[in-house]
Predict the 3D structure of the following.
Amino acid sequence: MEVLRRAILQAGPPENFALQTVQEVIKPQKQTKLAQDENQLLENMLRTLLQELASSAVQSGEPIMQYGQSIDDGETSHAQIPRLLDIVLHLCENEHVEGGMIFQLLEDLTEMSTMKNCKDIFGYIESKQDILGKQELFARGKLVMLRTCNQLLRRLSKANDVVFCGRILMFLAHFFPLSERSAVNIKGVFNTSNETKYEKDPPDGIPVDFNFYKTFWSLQEYFCNPAVTLVPTKWQKFASSLTVVLNTFDSQPLSEEEGDTNDLEEEAATFNIKYLTSTKLMGLELKDSSFRRHVLVQCLILFDYLKGPGKNDKDLPSESMKEEIKSCEERVKKLLEMTPPKGGDFLCSIEHILDREKNWVWWKRDGCPPFEKQPMERKAVGDGPKKRRPRWRLGNKELSQLWKWADQNPNALTDAQRVRTPAISEYWKPLAEDMDPSAGIEAEYHHKNNRVYCWKGLRVSARQDLDGFSRFTDHGIEGVVPLELLPPHVRSKYQAKANDRSKRAKKEDSKGAPSQAEENQIATSANEIDGEGIRADLEASAAPMDTDATTGTSNNSQGGTPTPDEQQKQSSDTDIGQEAGQLDADAEADAGMMDGETDAEVDLDVVG
């Protein structure tokens, strides 16, 4: 003990003598780190010394955190208890002793001190927050620190020690991570012990609307536990009471002068956590702008809870209740905006806070996943020579390997079975099976939904089956399937329309044949007239010319003027050629619209 007392009185930083002092007192087996039993022995000695110092401070009448402090020759010596805590904190930080020892000493010190001294002790805790929050210390002492702060909060008065309570809560918020489950109230339990007491019987000789007084303060019962408003009878009672209060606020608006008289910044110095509920103060409180805002903001918080996301179906309000909530909320916001001073700015701030609160609610409903992410460890670069990246012949490993295989097996790229155009019946067979209702294939799994398959099939049909390709205009992609692949009851649907179309084509061809014959007959008459004029001028050479003319006339009748059968055949061939070309172009355009690809992107041949 005497060694520890001398160490407290030494000047200089603790790192100069702390470890040597422990080694002198304990004589540990290891030079820099104590064993478990050695830690327990040192902790008992330190707790005993701390109790003696606190007792001596109380007897001397000095504050605990200033006991032993003196000023000699203009130099200020450290107080003994803070000096002892600094030495232990240094030992814990450097892992010479168990990390939770400093937290245990702080808990003992707060338990044996008055609330006045506890404020100084907590000031020391706040000053060492960064060191106490280090991972090696936090993991060992977080529960002890939480217990210490909760004990302080129980001892404090919520009405008279508001500032000190706020300091403790702010410390806990900074000391513990945001995702600490012990501080987020996952179940959403309300503090129903925060009861607002008000007068139940009307006072004598005081002119006050006691019915309004009871109605007004009865709202605090619902604000204290908003979950009860989900019961229909409770909601109706709350809604009627709230309507009375809002009507009173509407009938007694506040002027700008009344709002300016209540300076919120000056009021913050004497702010009380709860308003007084005396009937004598009811009239004055209604003229207080901050009092009105307090009640209206409570209404918005309750409405925000009822509309909150992530609730179960049984916890959601009914449709009629939602309409009432919406109308009441709009009315409350309007009153907030009208309440001076700067009602509009105040309303915008409250809406922003409530909007951010939704993110907090969703985070709690999701089980409070941690926000913090551990930093990635950077791998140390070796001092040796850097390895050169391999250079591939064709830019990467896969293409180079493929080229290597082609060199080893030259037939791999020239094999006829590698790239070939399949037969039309083989290609359309899967789609024909889909079209059979007896197969029972669902529509979403049909091959006609595969745009690449349809596009390639149209290209193959355009080359091998022009008749089937022409059915694409009337029947779509299913009409292109060869008829012999389809079942009889499916084939009839496409075959009938094909026969009607061929009849229509023959009828149009027969109408065009007479007009073509008339044009050919006129052209033949004109040629005969010209031939007769030539024979009249050349009578001397009538025999050979007649022979030539006869031959020319014969050739003209055979080649220049086709017969009706030849004209019909020629017209039919011409129409079929034009129709096939038009269908090919339409098919390519439709297929391009289906797939969104160009001819350069889709190969004409189908890979087998």
In short: Strands lie at 71-72, 75-76. The CA atoms of residues 103 and 513 lie 112 Å apart. The first strand starts at residue 71 and ends at 72.
